[in-house]
Amino acid sequence: MSFTTPFFLFIFFPLSVALYYGAAALETWMPGLKKLRLSDLVLLGMSLVFFGWGILKNTMYLLVYILAVYALGRLLAARGKQGSRWILALGVTLLLGVLYLYKYHTFTATTINGLAGRTILPAGSLAPLLGISYLTFAAISYLVDIRRELAPAGNLLDAALYLAFSPRCCPGPLCCGGISAPSWHAGAGAWRGLCPA
Predict the structure, then answer these.
(1) In 3-state terms, what secondary structure has residue 195?
(2) Quick check: 165 and 47 in contact, CB under 8 A?
(3) Which of 70, 139, 71 is nearest to 99 (CA)?
(4) Spatial CA neighbour of 39 closest among 25, 20, 26
(5) pLDDT value, residue 173
(6) Do residues 44 and 160 touch, judged by C-beta distance below 8 A?
(7) Which of 35, 31, 39 is nearest to 190 (CA)?
């Protein structure tokens, strides 16, 4: 689904906003729901629907990706600055490896096979994961901020929102986790931490 399609503009986006504010209203009427972060769960659910709109199995890949990044973030947070450099290096290498597999493997294999005149590398392509470059650089910034202790690792919902929340309006995927994370940890809701002043 593209941001510029009539379906997104006139159905999906207004529905997402209505569900978010409906959940936020429920949280104010029923204080027990605020602990569940219902409005943030709605945003995450709508973001997963957005990512999986074209190819449903991409949602499963995205969830595995989020879990892996979250696990690396927790590992970095547990180690602190001391002894976590290799964890960060491993995380960045893995994330860039996933980016390579999705975007550049077919090109590399086709080029090498063409130069060799025979099949050396299999050139099968993976179904494109929507926004894999964006996700990769957002995940790297998340891990770097945790390593530098600029942002806490948070919980799984924090990591999932940081990576999957599609209409983020900060300056691109290189927006630091330290910009968005404080509003989520304060329970202010995801909409409020997106546009830093």
Answers:
(1) coil
(2) yes
(3) 139
(4) 20
(5) 47
(6) yes
(7) 39
Q: How many CA atoms lie within 13 A of 89 on its CB side?
A: 4
* Distance in angstroms (rounded) separating the CA atoms of residues 30 and 190: 19
* Farthest-apart Cα atoms in the chain, separation: 69
- Give the separation between CA 56 and CA 49, rounded to whole angstroms: 8
Using 50 as the pLDDT threshold, list the residues of the chain that sit under it: 169-171, 173, 182-197
3-class secondary structure for 142-153? HHHHHHCCCCCC
- CA dist list (Å): 164 to 20, 28, 146, 186, 191: 16, 25, 18, 19, 13
| Complete DSSP assignment for 154-179 | --HHHHHHHHH-TT--SSSTT--HHH
For residue 41, the model assigns a pLDDT of 94
Q: Residue 61: which of 53, 51, 71, 74 has the closest Cα?
A: 51
Q: Any idea which residue has 């691109």 for tokens?
A: 172
Joined tokens for residue 131: 């926004």
38-52 vs 57-79: helix crossing angle, rounded to 10: 130
